[in-house]
Amino acid sequence: ELKVEQNPLFLSMQEGKNYTIYCNYSTTSDRLYWYRQDPGKSLESLFVLLSNGAVKQEGRLMASLDTKARLSTLHITAAVHDLSATYFCAGSRRGAQKLVFGQGTRLTINP
Amino acid sequence: DADVTQTPRNRITKTGKRIMLECSQTKGHDRMYWYRQDPGLGLRLIYYSFDVKDINKGEISDGYSVSRQAQAKFSLSLESAIPNQTALYFCATSEGGDWGAKNIQYFGAGTRLSVL
């Protein structure tokens, strides 16, 4: 059974700083997704990582996948207030084709 | 208009009542999903459907039922609501296809349900 765990669950940081959110999963997950959720809003797809070593970048966010370590990271560079949100990772196994979500990381970026 | 529409957006009901949450989509996707979100637990899958004749239980299906009325419509019912079903419910859709496809799920705006 696939299990997905994120850490930290809460993160408060200052604008301009760099930080990383970690996503560990328990067994083979052939795809890894990152979503963003603003308070009271729906989930928005950020990245999908399909293979070992995959790296995707959009603005100040960069996601990577290491399938051997069963680890994905979401790196935030020079944080700005607009990135404050809850970030979820989710794994998916070949054949199952359904997502298993982590608990979410609530990110607060202070001026 | 939103590609994935959930109705109602908010609902307050009493213990024991039957309620239905509805989801419709204009994305033309075959696959539809129902999740619930609770603080600190992420999203958990209730039911999913890969086409009109294919419906599957997720990890927390007890107390829920679904109906896939058409490719574009997927409803979630609580037959006899109880307070611990108070949560935020999301519908999602995905294109599906073979394993090489990205299979990104697209979410509706959510239904906030309170069971008193």
Description:
The complex is a heterodimer of chains A (111) and B (116). With 111 residues, chain A is mainly beta. Chain A has no helices and eleven strands. In chain A, a hairpin with a 2-residue loop joins strand 6 and strand 7. By secondary structure, chain B is mainly β. Helices cover 0% and strands 57% of the residues of chain B. Chain B contains no helices and eleven strands. In chain B, the strands form two sheets. In chain B, strands 2, 4, 5, 6, 9, 10 and 11 form a seven-stranded mixed β-sheet that branches. In chain B, strands 1-3-8-7 form a four-stranded antiparallel β-sheet, with no helix packed on it. In chain B, strand 7 and strand 8 form a beta hairpin. The radius of gyration of chain B is 14 Å and the shape is globular. Chain B starts with a strand and ends with a strand. At the A-B interface, strand 5, strand 9 and strand 10 of A face strand 5 and strand 10 of B.
The gist of it:
Chain A is mostly beta strands. Chain A is 0% helix and 57% strand.
- Structural class of chain B comes to mainly beta
Strand content of chain A: over 45%
The shape of chain B is: globular
Largest sheet report of chain A? 6 strands, mixed
Q: Give the averaged pLDDT of chain B, no decimals.
A: 92
Q: Largest sheet of chain B, described in full? A: 7 strands, mixed
Output the structural class of chain A.
Answer: mainly beta
Oligomeric nature of the chains: heterodimer
Mean pLDDT across all amino acids of chain A: 92
Overall 3D geometry of chain A? globular
- Tally the helices of chain B: what do you get? 0
Number of helices of chain A: 0
Unreliable spans of chain A are none
